[in-house]
Design goal:
This protein has 432 residues and is mainly alpha-helical. The chain folds into two domains: 63-193, no CATH class; 211-428, MetI-like (MetI-like fold, Orthogonal Bundle). It contains 18 helices and three strands. It has helices at 2-55, 72-75, 83-86, 91-102, 109-116, 123-133, 150-156, 173-184, 195-198, 211-242, 247-259, 264-278, 286-310, 314-322, 327-355, 359-363, 384-392, 398-428, and strands spanning 60-69, 141-147, 188-192. Helix 12 (264-278) packs across helix 13, helix 13 packs across helix 15 (327-355) and helix 14 runs antiparallel to helix 15. The chain is elongated, with a radius of gyration of 32 Å.
Length: 432
């Protein structure tokens, strides 16, 4: 009897020890899980802080006010006010003259060149466009706010330190003295950089904007959606509702799943070989970019659509057939509408993936420098990820902040698309 009691006590002790070890293992597992989550959130926070900290300054631009004399004998000596004559004027000299009136000590050739670098090189285009819109301004004096040059803009934002040797910064001591004088006169302002959203790319950082890339992305995504959505939904309906289960359909399903894992650069090589070299479609066009992204997005939408169709209970199909509906009517009138929220969610996620792709578009030439906003699906254009790639490779300091700012805009689009997918799923999802 004593041995039996001792055995039970020993068994209870071993069991309790095992339970305690299991509970400790569960606590360790929870701790590791929470540590992994917080580590991921920490890395994400550092990444976002770096991007925002570098790019927020791109949404501001330094402007300098000048009183510009639009002398007729300089701009339009013949007095015709014709566009051809206005385009031949030396507007850079007009802006430089306005600066020298403020700084008469800049009399030497080198000083004149240095003082002209305070203003963006696009100032002459600003004057030309202003006079083309209103030729009557010739012969008058106008007070105009011009963009500062990229180096001076960086200096005003604190990105170029003041208290370092002159040979270690791009802004000279004389330029610093001149800009301080202009600031004391109230002729320097920082304004919200609307041009960043309303202009296309440029060789000069202060003139560069993302409008061309945004329009190119929009046109490319339109082509992608028009091509991928109907084909993907029709394929999913056929495989899930119509196709017999045999080796052929199994082979198709395996290939679709494999295509979803193919690197995107492979689709770019396919587009280069087929769409450009064989069919001769225009290079660097949203039409070709949309076609290659449609090929890449198809597997994602097909898989999501099939999952949405599978989620519809068989009782819906059986009830429709019992009421006299044909198989096609059952799918089109009952199953597909109920599965559409899931299909749309998968489509939006696939489109968000396509929006962030760069590699396949580089292969079809969308890496070209495009200064005009595309007006059609066949015009040369670029997209936001490629624009980020181009600016990140530029040597000018001003493009660094614009690279991060473009990334912020791209992330905003991606977050908006994913939030839309979540809202659609929550709004229209049905639990069976």
């Amino acid at each position: 009897m004593t041995d039996l009691i001792s055995g039970r006590v020993l068994t209870d002790a071993v069991t309790q020890q095992r339970l305690s070890g299991r509970h400790r293992a569960e606590r360790r597992f929870k701790f590791y899980g929470l540590a992994a989550i917080f580590a991921a959130l920490g890395v994400l926070a550092v990444l976002l802080f770096t991007i925002v900290g570098t790019g927020y300054s791109a949404f501001q631009q330094t402007y300098i006010q000048l009183d510009v004399e639009l002398l007729e004998d300089v701009i339009d000596p013949r007095g015709t006010r014709l566009e051809s004559d206005l385009r031949q004027a030396n507007y850079g000299a007009v802006v430089r003259t306005a600066l020298i009136k403020i700084f008469p000590e800049a009399s030497g050739r080198r000083d004149r060149r240095e003082v002209s670098r305070l203003i963006s090189s696009g100032a002459d285009i600003r004057l030309l466009n202003m006079l083309l819109e209103d030729p009557s301004l010739v012969g008058t004096t106008q007070t105009i706010w011009f963009k500062a040059s990229a180096d001076l803009d960086s200096f005003m934002k604190g990105q170029i330190p003041r208290h370092v040797p002159e040979d270690e910064r791009k802004v000279g001591d004389k330029q610093i003295a001149w800009i301080d004088h202009l600031s004391d006169m109230g002729l320097v302002e920082k304004r919200f950089n609307f041009d960043f959203f309303t202009t296309a790319d440029s060789r000069e950082p202060e003139q560069a904007g993302i409008l061309g890339a945004v329009v190119g992305s929009l046109l490319t995504l339109i082509v992608t959606l028009v091509l991928s959505f109907p084909i993907a939904v029709a394929t999913a309906v056929y495989l899930e509702e119509v196709a017999p289960k045999n080796r052929l359909t199994d082979l198709i399903e395996v290939n679709i799943n494999n295509l979803a894992a193919v690197p995107s650069i492979v689709f770019g090589l396919l587009a280069l070989a087929v769409f450009l070299n064989f069919f001769g479609l225009p290079r660097s066009a949203p039409l070709v970019g949309g076609m290659v992204l449609a090929l890449m997005t198809l597997p994602t939408i097909i898989i999501a659509s099939r999952a949405a169709l599978k989620a519809v209970p068989p009782s819906i199909r059986e009830a429709a057939i019992a009421m006299g509906a044909s198989p096609v009517q059952t799918v089109l009138h009952h199953v597909l509408p109920l599965a559409m929220p899931g299909i749309l969610t998968g489509t939006i996620i696939g489109m968000a993936q396509a929006l962030g792709e760069t590699a396949p578009l580089l292969m079809i030439g969308m890496v070209a420098f495009i200064v005009d906003v595309p007006g059609s699906f066949t015009d040369p254009s670029t997209v936001l990820p490629v624009q980020v790639f181009l600016w990140a490779d530029a040597p000018e300091r001003g493009f660094v902040e614009r690279t991060s700012a473009a990334i912020m805009v791209l992330l905003a689009f991606l977050i908006a698309m994913n939030m839309l997918a979540v809202l659609l799923r929550r709004r229209f999802e049905r639990r069976w």
